[in-house]
Design a protein that fits this description.
Elements lengths: L5 E7 L5 H17 L3 E5 L7 H4 L7 E5 L2 E7 L2 E4 L5 H9 L6 H6 L8 E4 L6 H9 L4 E6 L2 H18 L9 E5 L14 E4 L23 H14 L2 E8 L3 H6 L2 E3 L6 E8 L4
Parallel strand pairs: 1-2, 1-3, 6-7, 6-9, 7-8, 9-10
Antiparallel strand pairs: 3-4, 4-5, 10-12, 11-12
Helix pairs in contact: 3-5
Length: 274
């Protein structure tokens, strides 16, 4: 985990009630107990607009609303959990119309599926799809950018505890702030690891556009991630990558080509040297 101090402001909707204040208390307790490097301040919202709250301070702002939790990294950029097309994919899967390529790769009789590591959580769209489909699986979801991690974590907690109760047993997901290369002890718990490194090409219409305001592609970091996995992990490695990604050829992934998409899913089985 990064030891550099980070800053965060927290506020509520304009008219908070006990429900909102309870979430505010839970979030501050979480920060106090698990994020010692985060310096936070609770702001009285009053009737201030988001624009007004950013006029004199540029510190990211977490807003607790009745419809969910939103993190503003700037006045015009916000990160929040939403299911995007995940629910559509899941309904098609349940109806027997289509098996998403990721789920097809996971439902593999050659490997134990009880524990899955998501090495690069991001907006958690694929994490959600996996959790909806694999109803008894435990997940370890890593995200090394604190703002993405915290916004998506609390967004999912809110969504599946309040908006879509029972959609996912959220207790099956362990949200971990940090890079998996610093937690290789986790490797022994799972036989499947999934990774979706942010790719080089900027796709402004994709749901990662808001994330690119707070993080960026790092080729060396992704190479370190794959090298660490290949050195210490035994099992099935599943990759989602842009079709131009160097990771595909560099590591020998077998890709499933989707004609109408620039991103593809692939896999390989990796055995540790004895």
């Amino acid at each position: 985990m990064n030891t550099v101090n980070l800053q965060l402001r927290i506020t509520t909707c304009v008219a908070p009630d006990p429900f909102i204040f309870n979430y505010l208390s839970n979030i501050t307790d979480d920060l106090n107990n698990h994020y010692k490097n985060v310096i936070y301040e609770v702001i009285d919202r009053e009737k201030l607009t988001i624009k007004k709250l950013f006029e004199t301070c540029s510190t990211p702002l977490l807003v607790i609303l009745h419809k969910g939790i939103i993190l503003y990294t700037s006045r015009d950029n916000k990160i929040f959990y939403h299911e995007n097309t995940t629910r559509v994919k899941y309904k098609a899967y349940i109806a027997g119309k289509d098996i998403p390529p990721l789920i097809n790769l996971i439902q593999d009789p050659k490997v134990n599926q009880q524990v899955i590591i998501d090495a690069t959580m991001g907006m958690a769209n694929d994490l959600t799809l996996m959790a909806l489909t694999m109803t008894t699986t435990t997940f370890f979801a890593f995200e090394e950018n604190f703002y993405i991690h915290f916004a998506v974590k609390w967004g999912m907690l809110f969504h599946f505890n309040e908006i879509n109760k029972g959609g996912i047993d959220i207790s099956r997901i362990h949200f971990i702030y940090g890079n998996i290369t610093n937690h290789i002890d986790i490797f022994s718990k799972a036989n499947i690891i999934y990774l979706d490194p942010m790719y080089e090409e900027t796709i402004t219409t994709s749901n990662i556009a808001s994330l690119r305001q707070v993080t960026e592609y790092n080729r060396e970091q992704n190479i370190k991630l794959l090298n660490t996995i290949f050195k210490s992990f035994k099992g099935k490695i599943i990759l989602r990558a842009h079709y131009k990604s160097h990771l595909i050829d560099d590591y020998g992934f077998n890709m499933t080509i989707r004609k109408q998409s620039k991103t593809h899913y692939g896999y390989l089985y990796h055995q540790l040297d004895n």
